[in-house]
Specification:
Distance between the termini: 59 Å
Number of domains: 3
Strand order of the largest sheet: 11-12-14-13
Shape: globular
Structural class: alpha/beta
Number of helices: 21
Mean pLDDT: 83
Number of strands: 14
Low-confidence stretches: 203-219, 323-333
Strand content: 5-15%
Helix content: 40-55%
Length: about 525
């Protein structure tokens, strides 16, 4: 046991990532050769994880070579936990590992940005923002303005597969990073509520097989393309702009975009599976059918058809493997799904939702839009990221940020000795926020309802911390400078007044008013 403890010393103090990886590998070999008790194994492995987490070279990897070795170290740790059957460590270990994975993903993201962006005179792009009327045509028009400006810039400079960093202005007035974040947020709402994308299974009247009903989990990636009888050039161009929009979100921060995993697998050239198409409840049902007997298949009365949302907003019955639908169920040629053809049935489902209904052309346009200014080899070979990581960088499900993190990573600019109560009341206000109100609060000071992966900690590490500036005024409405994640705060004479003023500010805030 003492010998194992001595092996931890170079792990915590090593300043070379390659040597660190070698030390951890040696530790793996030695510990698996020792016949220690379960408690001793738990203690020594927990100490190992602590030593690794405290190693600066590990937690601040800044190039792809370092990332490779950090990932190797993670795999060794997982192997140690598995070899020693340390089940009791797994929950705590997974939580710690998640933080490190997020850190590494942020590093990989920064390296990707360096490779795909260039700086030449920062073009200023003006978008048109119509108050309370951010419809599909406005979103597509503004995306097209950005797209064509940057494309012309590349042609002028003879540059391909890179994007010029740019500044954004709204209505020839406000400008800055906050404007871009706000535009991406507004666009995310429009594209997920008013555009082509549909929640294919979000219908109480929609049955999977005219028999089974399923509840939709809105935390899933459920928005996808419906079945199109025909498409035109507008559909294709809008899908190209949607791909370009996802690329912008990939560059500048995650949004609340509950779009299908299929989109991300198309971008990373991964195989589409049943799990990517259907809600969890439906996938569970299909998985259970893998173990059905012939009699159970017969009783299920499942046929080679599918109810699917069409582009008209109506559900239609389609035959699998064909491009036409039936308006009358009596016309269906009975082709039952049996134990022997169940795998064929599942393959038909995948092909139907991936390629039929003109989806193939639309998905190809989506991919083209994403890669217009981006060399796909960067994420395929140079700095590999998988579709799970791409999802993390593009979409985000909001969660409550603990008050401890707000306190730890907030920068307070205050020269007023009388601000102590105001600061404490602010913490009380933040801690009282529901998930919905926290999202509005984040939108108020950042322009987006979502913070980067790592939340406030990542803002701090990016040298753009959430900042509170306390002015020598009293009981004024808070204002924000979204470009700098900054809230301008007056002194308050009571906790109730601070709560009231902030509620007014975040509930009436709409876009650029407080920037």
């Amino acid at each position: 046991m003492d010998y194992l403890q001595t092996l931890l010393i170079p792990i915590s103090s090593c300043h070379d990532i390659i040597l660190l990886s070698a030390h951890v590998a040696q530790f793996h070999y030695v510990i698996t050769q020792n016949n220690l008790s379960m408690n001793d194994n738990l203690n020594i492995v927990e100490n190992l994880i602590t030593c690794i987490e405290n190693n600066r070279i590990y937690t601040q990897a800044n190039d792809i070579k370092a990332i490779t070795f950090v990932m190797n170290i993670q795999k060794i740790i997982v192997k140690i936990v598995s070899d020693l059957q340390l089940g009791r460590l797994s929950i705590n270990f997974e939580e710690k590992l998640l933080v490190t994975k997020q850190l590494l993903l942020n590093v990989k993201h920064k390296l990707i940005l360096k490779k795909c962006q260039y700086k030449r005179f920062y073009p200023l792009i003006n978008i048109n923002r119509q108050e309370d009327n951010f419809d599909v045509s406005t979103v597509m028009m503004n995306l097209s303005i950005i797209y064509e400006t940057l494309k012309s810039r590349n042609l002028e400079l003879g540059i391909e597969k890179k994007i010029n960093k740019f500044n954004m202005r709204a209505n020839n007035f406000e400008q800055g990073p906050g404007i871009l974040r706000d535009f991406l947020r507004e666009a995310s709402i429009t594209l997920t509520t008013k555009w082509l994308l549909k929640p294919l299974f979000d219908h109480k009247s929609l049955d999977f097989n005219m028999k089974y009903k399923f509840e939709l989990d809105t935390r899933e990636h459920y928005l996808y393309l419906p079945h199109f009888e025909k498409i035109d050039s507008t559909h294709v161009e809008q899908m190209r702009m949607f791909g370009f929009y996802i690329f912008l979100v990939f560059l500048y921060g995650p949004m609340q975009l509950p779009i299908s995993t299929i989109f991300f697998k198309i971008l990373t050239s991964n195989t589409i599976e049943i799990d990517d198409i259907f809600p969890t409840s439906m996938v569970k049902f299909l998985n259970e059918m893998n173990f059905y007997t012939d009699k159970q298949f017969e009783e299920a009365y499942l046929t080679m058809t599918i109810n699917c949302m069409s582009s008209t907003g109506q559900t239609q019955l389609y035959t699998l493997g064909n491009l036409y639908h039936y308006s009358n169920i009596d016309n269906i040629i009975d082709c039952s799904v049996t134990k022997s053809n169940f795998d064929t049935y599942k393959n038909y489902l995948i092909k139907f939702y991936t390629w039929q209904g003109n989806r193939k052309e639309l998905l190809n346009a989506f991919r083209e839009g994403f890669y217009t200014f981006f060399d796909e080899n960067i994420i395929f070979t140079q700095i590999p990221i998988n579709y799970h990581e791409l999802i993390e960088l593009v979409t985000k499900i909001q969660e409550i940020i603990p008050i401890e993190q707000w306190k730890m990573y907030t920068k307070i600019l205050n020269n007023n000795p009388n601000a102590t109560d105001t600061i404490q009341w602010l913490w009380d206000y933040i801690e009282s926020l529901s998930l919905e109100k926290q999202s509005k609060f984040i939108e108020f000071f950042s322009g987006s309802t979502c913070l980067p992966i790592g939340n406030l900690k990542q803002l701090s590490e990016n040298n753009r911390p959430f900042t509170i500036y306390i002015a020598n005024e009293v009981d004024k409405l808070p204002s924000a400078t979204t470009c700098f994640y900054k809230v301008n705060l007056s002194l308050f004479t009571s906790k109730n007044i601070l709560f009231e003023k902030f509620d007014i500010a975040i509930s009436t805030f709409n876009g650029f008013q407080f920037m």
